[in-house]
Hints:
The chain has 337 residues and is α/β, with parallel strands linked by helices. The protein has helices spanning 6-12, 17-20, 96-103, 124-127, 130-145, 166-174, 181-190, 194-202, 211-214, 238-242, 271-274, 299-305, 320-335; strands at residues 2-3, 25-31, 40-46, 54-57, 66-70, 79-85, 108-112, 154-164, 224-228, 249-253, 279-283. It is built from 13 helices and eleven strands. Mean pLDDT is 89; it is low at 11-19.
Amino acid sequence: MRRLALLALLALSAADPATADMLPGYDRFDLRADHRARPIAASIWYPAANPTYRAPVGDGPIFDPTFAFIGPAIAEGEHPLVLLSHGSGGNADALGWLTSGLVAQGAIVLAVNHPGSTSGDSSPRRSVDLLSRATDLTAALDMILADPAFAPFIDEERISVVGFSLGGATALGLAGVRFDGAVQDTNCTTGHDAAECVFFRLGGVRFADYPGFEADARDPRVTRAGIVDPGFGGAADPETLQNALPGMTLINLGEADRLDATDIGPNGNNLAQRLPDTTYVEIAPASHFTFLGTCKPGAAKLLEDEQDDPICTDPEGTDRAAIHAQLIAAIALGLGL
């Protein structure tokens, strides 16, 4: 395992000025996949060759939008492709701060809204199906590599996956990690990874009852992975950890170190030590929710009034936009952008 200092990450990951000066290109489309009854909402962000019209993406009552050019031509050359998996109850467009940041590093980013675990339809029983989430991304990859508008601009030797929280578990699956439902049920009962269990308990979920939680979702086309605060690390099958994609970048948000604890206690899973050749990055002060977009004025009060999760409330001293810059730098470096 390697640890990287954040100042070094920021120095090594400066954006290409020619790319950074241009807003990202953006397109939204429906993805039809055999494993889903209805089309999957998907989007693609990419380096733009020219401006079209500027529009906000991901605008809503809570998060600030990200501005992009809608449907411009793609910048010349072959670009690395990044698959992006959002967390439980999230959505792809709300992560525009990250996708636009990776585009500024020269990448094309392909994202989906995972049915059953996205904003407005997040269900415990459907969110536990990690195989369906992973297959959303493999189906999107199949489609984009067959699309004559995008395929010529993709470097098929540089395909990566990035995931946060439940999306982190999804990304680990694409990288070859499998999970044990019985172990996760035990962890929920004993308090290990207890915070991850509350939502699923509300739906009466027993992880061992869901084959999609334990299934093999590896995609050999994925050559790098960036994993941020992944779920279910304590239930990762040890044998598959040893045979998983080497060289992943694993990012821990906040001072509560769950991912590189030498003494695996009630809140730790030590993934950074157990995965092969991992680069480990710890970013603080921050919390799990700091990964989400910057919040509009009054959003924290709105969430409090609705008795919703405090997703706009960070630890004292946290600058969410600055943390985002550190995350973009760490992920871009880990993916070789």
